[in-house]
Request: fold
Amino acid sequence: MNLPTPRILVTLFLALLAGSIVAQPTPPDPKVPPPAAKQSLNPALPTIWIAGDSTAAAGNPAPIVGWGVPFPSYFDLDKVNVVNRARGGRSSRTFIAEGLWDELMAQVKPGDQVLIQFGHNDGSPVNEDASVPKAKRRSRGSLPGLGDETREIDNIVTGKHEVVHTFGWYVRKMIADVKARGATPTLLSLTVRNYWKNGRIERGSGHYREWDRALASEAGIAFVDLTRQLADELDFRGEQKAAELFVPDHVHPTAAGAELFAAQVVAGLKGLRKAPFGEWLSDKGRAVAADKIGWLNLPEPADPKLPTLMFVGDSTVRNGRGDGAGGQWGWGDFLDGYFDTGKINLVNRAVGGTTGRTFLTLGYWPRARLLLKPGDFVVIQFGTNDGGPINEDASVPPANRRARGSLPGTGEETKDIVNIITGEPEVVHTNGWYLRKFVREAREAGATPVLCSLVPRKIWKDGRIVRSEHGSAEVAREVAAQEKVPFIDLNNLVAERYEELGPAAVDALFADPHTHTSRAGAVAIAGIVARALRNMPGDPLGAYVRASER
Reply:
């Protein structure tokens, strides 16, 4: 055997030494836990992937538990793989820059689902100052916003030159990469932080939630507003009970918190329309109630520091998702032409198909009330659907069952039923009882309630629009008088305007035969509402009116 000469051995040793110096990796960040062991995959099954930060990650230091840890238990793992690739300490930028995203993408295949949730760390410094101790340097922040701005840096952590992009740029890249693999991306807004003010938990850190919503809309993909779901749930529980779900740093969940967060992710996914997640659920997952309001895209105050003018009602106030589907719009979406949104939030929480009764029983009013604070205003308009059946007969096909009507009048009469839709017992009250409840609870929250009669349908008789003279309109008037709150006789005001215009012109204001307005019709009614609000005694909204409307 020919052995290598001493000269060759020395040469090899020096080469290896040089290579080890050049290739020496950056020391791991002691504050960031190592990744969890990678799960084995069944290649014959679709996979749900999680890309995110420590609020989802496995491998966090105790007592922190990311929601991605209990998440697989909500699925039947004989039907779908669930793989958690979230990593503590990462932003959208560093998840890509460190190669974690490419590692994930290398395994994604057509038919997979990728859940993307970033933002908690994106607000960190883009590059640390040299005065910051090395152990505390992160240099992980992205530029704010959705644009194409960039910033070139010499990264103090990696020692490399880097072009840093906006949060929107990084998330757009993730969305595009997932689609290119034939898989489906879903954006999740951030988990909430355990910060409270005036008895309400913070609803999102920075603008990442609204940016995620905008990015999902732009890309035509699903968005799960986990921030809203968790904030609603924790507001209902209260500050003391919520504190038990977080470790002392206010951001990271305990095991109990992770379980709640994971269940809310599942609820959000189940609430998506035409998504496959329901087909893959375990018994535990099937027991989670779907989030039924996420698809509605209901707004919240853009600036919590400002007063809010809120609208609640049915589809004549806000139709569907408030995006004009089918050419149908509600008048509550067009008050921004009259009020300065730099001085007051406009929040349209009306939900199509509801009555005063179902707006309460389906949870829309309790969630809207969570957003009210002293100094706010809430405009209440119901009646279009209140005359429907209190409970459907079993002969009515399930798809056509409504069971949403209330008892007529303003009294305290009740009727006990077993609701054919929910299967649960229910005590049904009068139309006026529900309106009184909304008025009183708005006052309890420190807001000013305003009652409106329902807008009229496009039904002509003897040259006049048919009014609701002895029905829901009169109920609203009576309750307003009983509770001594402002009343807008929208039923009569709008009818008078239609009669001024005449049948031909009014036809153009509707998107269906007689109930739902077109954009032009909604704008016209919004103008009537705005003028009526300005005419309230004392002009309490005068300070918030646009200068052009004064």
Confidence is low (pLDDT under 50) at residues 1-37.
